[in-house]
Amino acid sequence: TDAKDGASRITLSGTSGGVRADLPLTVTVTTSAAGDVTMNSDFPTLRGPSTSNFTFNLTLANDTAEDLTYAVTAVGPDGWTVNATLTGQTQAASAVVKAGSSAAISVAATPAAQAAAGSYPIDVRATVGAKTIDAQLSVEITGTNAMTLTTPDQRLSNSGSAGGTITQQLVIRNDGTDALTNVTVSATTPSDWTVTYEPSATVASIAANQSATVTAKVVPSNDAIAGDYVVTFRASTSGSSTTTSSADIRMTIETSPLWGFLGLGLIAIVLFGLWWVFQRYGRR
């Protein structure tokens, strides 16, 4: 078992009845001829969003003439949860792979919360006796699109008068891991109401975990009577992967101050009329 690689010459000799015969032989020793241990994965790269869990299946092949004890470890990026298990030996730290046989290995990876889009390596190491075998896996994280449409103080109500302008600030928050592009704000209003936006109804881009503010100028109909109305604002992206979010805001139309002034004027006229009548006819 301690023989080194290389060729050795030996001679076999035999005698019979005083006759001798020699047979020279050359024996070549190579360690590779005894077989090797390898570790491979059918799919070394997996792809998906950061909310997914990824499982890799690897095979440890023992092509040697000996039964071997092995153990496997796996290391992923900071914040990731990565575990390597020996198939059929869930609780075991090591197992034996028989000569000429193979063993299955499972590597499970859970990305860090809100992991950004990109490629992340996972290093797997199998220790087989005094030998170590390394394999590198990778996870391609695709960006996730999510957003929330709300207001700066989370209050979903506002008020104003018929024909006047109600100013409503809207906050578009990017809750995903990928940038939002071409986000357009629109509104569904009661009949004859109008809405304009400042600086624009469209936001070119909102980075992940960032927000943008759009100011809506709502003008109720001149004929709107006092009461509560609902204006539905909606933010949406364009393209193959559409993301939307909406917010219902209660708009309270208040009685115009003009009617109050007119009422006060009528009361004043009536009181003046009574005073005049009293002054003119009260002494008769």
Q: Which helices and strands occur, and which strands form pairs?
A:
Blueprint: E1 6-16, E2 19-29, E3 37-41, E4 45-49, E5 54-62, E6 68-75, E7 81-86, E8 95-97, E9 102-110, E10 118-128, E11 131-142, E12 147-150, E13 157-161, E14 166-174, E15 180-188, E16 194-198, E17 202-206, E18 211-219, E19 227-236, E20 244-254, H1 257-281
Parallel strand pairs: 4-11, 13-20
Antiparallel strand pairs: 1-2, 3-5, 5-9, 6-8, 6-10, 7-9, 10-11, 12-14, 14-18, 15-17, 15-19, 16-18, 19-20
Task: Describe the overall structure.
With 284 residues, the chain is mostly beta strands. The protein folds into 2 domains: 33-142, Immunoglobulin-like; 147-258, Immunoglobulins (Immunoglobulin-like, Sandwich), CATH 2.60.40. The protein contains 1 helix and 20 strands. It has one helix spanning 257-281, and strands spanning 6-16, 19-29, 37-41, 45-49, 54-62, 68-75, 81-86, 95-97, 102-110, 118-128, 131-142, 147-150, 157-161, 166-174, 180-188, 194-198, 202-206, 211-219, 227-236, 244-254. The strands form 5 sheets. Strands 4-11-10-6-8 form a 5-stranded mixed beta sheet, with no helix packed on it. It has a 5-stranded mixed beta sheet with strand order 13-20-19-15-17, with no helix packed on it. A hairpin with a 7-residue loop joins strand 19 (227-236) and strand 20 (244-254). The longest helix has 25 residues, at 257-281. It is rod-shaped, with a radius of gyration of 41 Å. The mean pLDDT is 87.
